[in-house]
Amino acid sequence: MGKGDKKTKRGKINRGTFGARRPRIKKKPSLESKISIDKKAIPN
């Protein structure tokens, strides 16, 4: 178990691949994308 092992986290880092042991980190959507700047609140 080490750098050459395909199934370990260290092995995934060494090979530069992703999998169940080392999933890709998904980027969180920014606040700007959640709040639409184009749409303005309509006053009642």
Automatic annotation (TrEMBL):
One Pfam family of this chain: Thx
Ranges annotated as biased composition (Basic residues): 1-13
UniProt GO cellular component terms: ribosome
Keyword Protease set for record: no
InterPro entries named among the record's database cross-references: Ribosomal_bTHX, Ribosomal_bTHX/bTHXc/bTHXm
First and last residue of the signal peptide: none
Chain segments carrying region Disordered: 1-44
Keyword vocabulary terms for this entry: Ribonucleoprotein, Ribosomal protein
Keyword Ribosomal protein: yes
Domain of life per record: Bacteria
Biased composition (Basic and acidic residues): 29-44
Family to which the UniProt record says this protein belongs: Belongs to the bacterial ribosomal protein bTHX family.
Protein name per Swiss-Prot or TrEMBL: 30S ribosomal protein THX
UniProt organism field: Mariniflexile soesokkakense
